[in-house]
Amino acid sequence: MAKFPIRSANLKIQTETPFRMQTVSKRFQQRMNKYDVIIAGAGPYGLAVGAHLSQVRGLESVIFGEPMSFWERNMPQGMCLRSNWTATQIADPVGKLTLEAFQLERNIQFQTPVPVSRFVEYGQWYQSKALPDLDRRKVISIAASGDHFIISLEDETAVLAKNVIVALGIGAFARRPIEFAAIPKELASHVSEHRDLSAFRGKNVLVLGSGQSALESAALMNEQGVQVEVCTHAGSIHWLGGWASKTLHQGLGKGVARMLYAPTDVGPAGLSQIAARPDLVRRFPRAFQDALRKRALRPAGARWLHKRMQDVNIMLNCGVISAKPIGDQINVKLSGGIEKTVDHVLLGTGYQVDISRYTLLSPKLLAGIERHHGYPKLRPGLRTSVPGLHMLGAPAAWSFGPLMNFVSGAGYASRCLVQHFSDRKKKR
Fold first, then answer.
1. Which whole-number Å values give the CA distances from 137 to 25, 132, 155, 318, in the listed order?
2. Calculated CA dihedral for residues 356, 360, 361, 362, nearest 10 degrees
3. What domains can you pick out in the chain, each with its CATH number?
4. 3-state class of 397 per DSSP?
5. Mean pLDDT of 283-309
6. 194 in Cβ contact with 348 (< 8 Å)
7. Which of 203, 171, 152 is nearest to 45 (CA)?
8. How far apart, in whole angstroms, are the C-alpha atoms of residue 83 and residue 402?
9. Phi and psi for 375 in degrees, rounded to 5?
10. What is the pTM of this model?
11. Per-residue pLDDT tens digits for 69-84
12. Cα–Cα dist 333/341, whole Å
């Protein structure tokens, strides 16, 4: 069973940067709690992997982080998940911590689309069942020290680990187009920076993007009395679950649908089954992997959102040329000679993986990680080029395919890591 500390060694390091932790003497290191595995992050991936590794006999592991914090604090109220019921489950090693079990115990009812608020509650319930001794302290820095890692925490304590699993999610990767780099957040902000979109009531807001977060944010604001328009450089909005999808799912029967679509719910017919198998994805040529990732991750909105967007003006083929503040408003010049002066621009511009934006990684540790355009180049076992350092979720997508961008990918990641650490223990 996993080991969870109440308190780690109290080592207050007087330094200008937490990354000096790597110079801690061996005498101090001997006083630290030591673990086989530390998981940084307690979102769906961190929770799933923590639950699975807790079943590995003789493996001392600990997970740090506030459960579901990004989903709870950085998703606008009223949002729903785009994924289907099966793909919204958080993987657990015994298959009992399901959405159905959660509803039954809490005596509540909901269905797809699953509200984000319910998903957060489900994740926190999952944690209370699978990882009741989870350590809620935040990891501040991770640095290598010989054949170990030194992990410093927010209360100025530190622990040692032979292996570190980074499951920090996408919060650090919010994409802010260069045209808005110098614009204050009071005038242009990313959708992940808002919990309550009703704060824009009575204002004019321009939403950039054509994906689920952009479109649903626009729908929510429109329903709350905000004057909102959507601008996208795309030539059309791609709505999921259209005629072709319904024909394949319903018209051809469940058997055919199961052949074409994996339960993980990532990618179109046929490709869905490939995306659901990351080990298979890795066997394809790099060009195919890149094309699969691009196809499965293209901006799209759920079909159930379409009706809610009927009253919202959507400007297609409309890219941003420039943006500048004008008093307490912002002027945006768009392609086609369109110009808008609004109270706020909401950036539904997605996320761009760049692990250098994980500020808790020491510069020396980061420099040792082989990367491709911000993505770590991962090996089997979700291993980086730094021995003992693993990365999950979106950062793993370049190496293991688009499944890693979704909650449903946590099942594969968990099984993969259980196998990795079990094999290592057998070799000792």
1. 24, 14, 8, 44
2. 110
3. 18-173+352-427 (3.50.50.60), 178-238+300-347 (3.50.50.60), 239-296 (no CATH)
4. helix
5. 95
6. no
7. 171
8. 14
9. -85, 140
10. 0.90
11. 999 999 999 999 999 9
12. 9
